Amino acid sequence: MSRIWIAANVNSGSYDGKLCERVSGALVEQGHEMAKLIECPDEALPDAATLTAQGVDALAVFGGDGTVNGAMRKADGWGGHILVLPGGTMNLLSRALHGDADSETIARRYAEGRCRIARLPVAMGEGEIALVGVIAGPTTAWGDVREDMRHFNLADMPGSIADAWTKTFGGAQVRLDGGGTAYPALFIEPAADALRVTGFTAEGAGQLFAHGLSWLKGDFREGPHEVLGQREAIEISAADEQPVGLLIDGEEAAGSAICRFHHEFSPVDFVYTADRSAAAA
What we know:
This protein is an alpha+beta fold and 281 residues long. The protein has helices at residues 17-29, 48-53, 65-74, 92-98, 103-111, 142-150, 157-170, 205-217, 274-277; strands at residues 3-9, 33-40, 58-63, 81-86, 116-125, 128-130, 134-136, 174-176, 179-183, 185-190, 195-200, 225-231, 233-238, 245-248, 251-254, 258-272. The protein has 9 helices and 16 strands. Strands 1, 2, 3, 4, 5, 6, 8, 9, 13 and 16 form a 10-stranded mixed β-sheet that branches. It has a 6-stranded antiparallel β-sheet with strand order 12-11-10-7-14-15, with no helix packed on it. Helix 1 (17-29) packs parallel to helix 5 and helix 6 (142-150) packs antiparallel against helix 7. The longest helix is centred in the middle third of the chain and has 14 residues, at 157-170. The chain is elongated, with a radius of gyration of 19 Å.
């Protein structure tokens, strides 16, 4: 049986202390040892040396995609695995690993051994590792609007919406591999064997409204877009050699004038439950 730590982002809009207790109970019922609860960001995420020294087999992360990304990077070099629990805004990674299951269902599947453990495909570049994907371009400003909504910053929303509108049309558009059509945003998503690339469009007020609405609803991928295919490695550049705006798993990052990403696999194992147990849950 596994020795498990839970890392929970208490600042997440989905954080629920009682839910964490129920998840712990589901794991303990099957004989697993629930050894520690880490409340981040008040407590630091554990590094590989700590996890190894404490004999931790699994780190359950209750938070958004950015929190999971941070946990993975800190745990680089550890021989255990990460169990992702949906505790963020979009929870795209949890949905990819477990379908639309809730935290208790996921914990029960894992506790009963209805899962598989493997590395995740990632997009790597610019000193970053993306589990869900990279959004590149001025449209990343819509992420600020979403954050204002998530934290109920209603006073700031008119300003952030106006800023997102201005940047989408007036910011440095981005191109793929140095040529072709310029886009307000490109989405680079790690697939099994390559990076899947999508170009988002905002050619008029109607498309811009649809694009912004998709951000506010929680899944930017529903916005107007064009599928640009798959490749092992890509290069993204902005007009006038300006730095490319980046969101890595939903978190803002500094990009260079030419950003390069390639397909790779995560440095830590993750738990998958969707394919084997969705029907039985």
